[in-house]
C-alpha cells in the first residue's frame, strides 16, 4: 500500500534532509538494485504472457515446433462465435455493479469504524471479514437455497453475494485511508464557512480519492474474476468470461481459444490498474 | 483464468454434494421421481413448447460439441418455436449442484431445463429425485431406438426408467502414436507388457478422474480374465476377491510409468497434453470423436492411431435429462426429441461436425435416414462404431466406481 503524504507536507524538505545526512552515495547503489529488481519482476510477470500472446494468433502449433506453424485469426473467430463478446459484456456489467455497490458501502463501514469506535467495533470488523474466512463453496451452497426460495432474480443474487465478498476488501482499504485521515481538515473547512456539500466535494473526496480508486478496483476484480458464485447462484442466466475460460480449459486442444479468452479477461483489470495507479500517484503532488 | 477461490472450492464439490444429499435425506425422504404433467399428448406438448426457452447445461470443453449445438441444434429448435440456450460448464457436477439446490428450495421454475449427463451424475441425481422421469416414451423419435439396447436402458447400472433420453454412444478408446509404437499391442495385457518394456512412455489419469477410473476398470476386466468374470452389480465379496490382483498389477506397473509413477496426470486433459507434447506414447478417451479434430488441427501427431483390443473395451451412452425443477419441460422434451431425429443424429455423427456415435437402431431408420448415415464421410483416425464397439464390454454398476477409486488411492497412489 502506497503511503499517502498529507497534502501540506513539502517533499522538497524531506529530500534536503536526506542530502544533508550524507545518504546520497548509497542511494545510487540502491537505485541500481531497485531497477534490477523491478526488471526481474517485470520479466517474471511478463514471461508467462508471451506464449499466451503467441497462442492467440496460432492457427496451428504442434509439438515440437518452437513457434506456431500457421498464424491467423481462427482462435479469435472461434472465441467470438462461442460468446466471447456477450461474456465480456456480462463480466463488465457484473464487475461494475459489484464495484458500484461495495465501494460506497465500504466507505461507510470504514468511516464509522475509524471515527466512531465503540465496544462493538471488533465484532463488526469480524463480521465484515467473515466472507474471507469461510470457504466460498459452503456459503454459496447455503445461501443459494435461501435466494431461490425468496425468488430473488438470479442476476441480482450474484451481485448481492459478490458484493458481500467485495466488502472486506473495500472496507480494509478505506479503513487504512481513514486511519491516516485528519478530521481537522474538515473541521477547519467548516470553521472557514464551507457548507457540508463543499466539505464533502472539496476536502473529503480529494483526500480519499486514491484509496477510493483502489477499493473500487478490488471490488471490480471480485465481480470480474468470479466463477463459483456466477455459475451456482447465476444459474446460467449470466455467462461471464471466467465461465467461458473454465469450460474451454477443461477440454483438450483449446489452447488457442483459452489464450484469447484469457487475454480478454486480463485487459480490463490491467487498464483499470494503470488508470488507478496514475490517478493514485498524481494526487498528493497535484497542488499548485 | 479460474480464480483460486473457485479452484479450491471445486475440490469440495464432491464432499458438498454428498453433504447436501445427506441433509436433504434427513429433512425428507427423497420423493418418487416426479411424473410429467398428466396425460399430455405429443401435440399438446409441442404447442405448449412454442415460445419457451430451454437452457441446456453441458460440459463446454469440447469445441466441436459446442459448435454442433450452436450451429445445428439451436437453429433446428428455433424452427420448432423453441429458443435453445447453451450454458457451458467446466464440469457436469456444476449443473447437478444447481439442480439439487433448486430441488432443496422447492422451486418449479428452475434455471436448468436440460442436462447432458450420464454415469454417476445421473445416478446421484436420480437418487435425489433431481430428474423428471417417465417422459421419454412420449417422444416420437424414441421409436428409432432399440428398446432392447442395454446401453440405453441402463446407465452405469442405474436403470434409466424414462428419466433421460439417449443422445450419443461412446466407446472407451486408447490412442497411440504409431511412429513411436510400430508394433502395437493387441490386448490390454499386451499393453501392460509394452509399458513394462518401455518405462516412462505411458501413464493414466489418477482416479477419480473419469477416464483414469475407466482405465482401472479395463485392467480389472483384464486381470480377472474378461468382463464375464466380473459381476456387474456391486457386491463386497466379488470386490474383495477380484481387486487384489488389480492392485498388484497396477503397483507392479507403477515404476514403469511416466516419472516412475511418482505422480499421475490429474485429469484426462493433462494426459492428453502429455501425449500432445510427445512425453508419452499413449492416451485414452471416452470420447473418440475428439481424436479426428485433434489430429487434423495438429494438436496430436499425424501418426496417431486407435488401438483396437481383441477383448474389446467398455462402451456407454450419454443422455439428455430434464431436471424435475425445470419450468419448461415441454420445450425440453421437444429439444430431446429433436436431438434424436435422424437428421440431427446424422449431423452429429459427421466427423467434420462432431463425430459422436448415433444411438439409433439401424433397422428402424427410414430409407432417407439410412441414406443420411450411408453418406457420412469416415474419419481418417477413428474407425467406425461397428469396429470400435466389437466385443464391447458392459460398464460396471456405478457403486463399483467409488470403491475402486478409493482402493486405488490407498494401495496404488499412497502405497509403495
UniProtKB/TrEMBL annotation, chain A:
It comes from the Bacteria. Pfam families: BPD_transp_1. It is a multi-pass membrane protein. SUPFAM superfamilies: MetI-like (SSF161098). It is found in: Cell inner membrane; Cell membrane. The keyword Phosphoprotein does not apply. InterPro entries: MetI-like, MetI-like_sf. Keywords: Cell inner membrane, Cell membrane, Membrane, Transmembrane, Transmembrane helix, Transport. Its main location: membrane. The chain crosses the membrane at residues 35-58, 88-110, 122-143, 155-178, 199-221, 227-250, 257-278. Residues 88-276 form the ABC transmembrane type-1 domain. The keyword Oxidoreductase does not apply. Belongs to the binding-protein-dependent transport system permease family. PANTHER family: INNER MEMBRANE ABC TRANSPORTER PERMEASE PROTEIN YDCV (PTHR43357:SF4). This is Spermidine/putrescine transport system permease protein.
